[in-house]
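Q: Structure tokens for this one, please.
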Amino acid sequence: MTALLIIVAAIALLAVGYVFYGSWLSKQWGIDPKKKTPAVEKEDGVDYVSAKPAVLMGHHFSSIAGAGPINGPIQAAIFGWVPVFLWCIIGGIFFGGLQDYGSLFASIRHDGKSLGEIIKDTMGVRAKNSS
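A: Here is the predicted structure, written as tokens:
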């Protein structure tokens, strides 16, 4: 199997996961695409600044893929490339995608606050300090 075929398969699987799993999560959480985000409602040019979707995609992709170039080859040397490839694709969709999407969803629902501030507001200072 050539590297190009593996890359194409990975892109296709991630695209399918994005479209189908992402839309399923949106329906489950009741996301309204017409609702304005805190960056639009509270825009101040410092903390609340709108960004283009392509820029946001780049930031979120680099966040979830950050440890891959270091961790991936080490795991592949131990377990082989097929289990690591499957873990990266399946884990990226169902674990990483859920975590990133859930974090963004929670932040938007709480006026753009960070997760630490959301924890403080909903669970108390003690929960925030122990995380």
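A few notes: The CA atoms of residues 51 and 86 lie 32 Å apart. The two ends are 44 Å apart (CA to CA).
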